[in-house]
Amino acid sequence: MKKIIVGNWKMNPPSVEEAVSLARAVAEHVKHPMFNKNVEVVLAPPFIFLYKVYETLYGGKVKLAGQDVFWEKAGAYTGEVSPAQLKNLGAAYVIVGHSERRALGETDEIVGRKLTAVLEAGMTPILCVGEPADVRERGMEAAKEFVGKQLEVIEHKVFEGIIAYEPVWAIGTGNNATPGDAAEMITLIKSLVTSYRLPIPVLYGGSVTSGNAGDFLNREEIDGLLVGGGSLNAEEFGEICRGA
Ligand code: PGA
């Protein structure tokens, strides 16, 4: 199966010029004749850079994602961005429920509404789930129970999207889950959620670098990576993508 590698730029880089040059450099890696055709590369820039990055990537293979979205279609929602607006700027995917959004107060109910809105707009949601450190300290079974609960936002257990397993304690910390633990959790996720186009892709995220990407990508249970810090340098991100 195809591996999917998503670069989540978060609130970086500081200027549109840097966003364009990062996107251009990533596109160069993906265009290389030796680049693995079975890897789908997706970039998630901040909203304000989406259009320029879309123009930069136009006609190439790199896809675009929104980092978040609002659930309403239009109206008086100052500061929000609708699914249709994201689609119009070229986004094929939308990250929903990232732990950094949840830390700012996003509840499972909001996550559920966003998933529905993204699917209705004809884009693919990338739903993020993962347990915090205090839960993981209680063991793998506690972590599985926590993630299982987060997946209850998916109605009838059928989901036409992508899931990213990102243990909160592994995000931006330099501590990653072992490939074995990540694969175990991903196998559980795949047993809890199905789709009409089985099997559902489940990615791993959390302190992925060029040094450990191959260890995750070599596991057949793991369908790709969600990369934060490692996606802000085109050389490093290119190396991560080549690990597949
Ligand atoms: P990180 O972030 O790779 O910097 O740990 C991953 C993410 O939050 O998506």
Helix content: 25-40%
The run of helices and strands is EHEHEHEHHEHHEHEHEH
Mean pLDDT: 96
N- and C-termini, Cα separation: 11 Å
Query: What's the name of the CATH homologous superfamily?
Result: Aldolase class I
Largest sheet: 8 strands, parallel, barrel
Bound molecule types: 2-phosphoglycolic acid
Report Rg: 17 Å
> What is the CATH first-level class name?
Alpha Beta
What number of structural domains do the residues give?
1
Quaternary: single chain
What is the CATH fold-level name?
Answer: TIM Barrel
Global morphology: globular
Q: What's the number of extended β-strand segments?
A: 8
Structural class of the helix and strand makeup?
alpha/beta
CATH architecture: Alpha-Beta Barrel
Trace the largest sheet across and list its strands.
1-2-3-4-5-6-7-8
Account of the protein in words:
An 8-stranded parallel barrel has the order 1-2-3-4-5-6-7-8. It has 244 residues and is of the alpha/beta class. It is built from 10 helices and 8 strands. Strand 1 (3-8), helix 1 and strand 2 form a beta-alpha-beta unit. The chain has a single domain (3-242), classed as TIM Barrel (Alpha-Beta Barrel). It is 37% helix and 16% strand. The radius of gyration is 17 Å and the shape is globular. The protein has helices at 16-31, 50-57, 83-88, 99-102, 108-120, 133-136, 140-150, 179-192, 213-217, 234-242; strands at 3-8, 39-44, 63-66, 91-96, 124-129, 162-165, 202-205, 224-227. The mean pLDDT is 96. 2-phosphoglycolic acid is lined by residues 8, 166, 171-172, 205-208, 226-230.
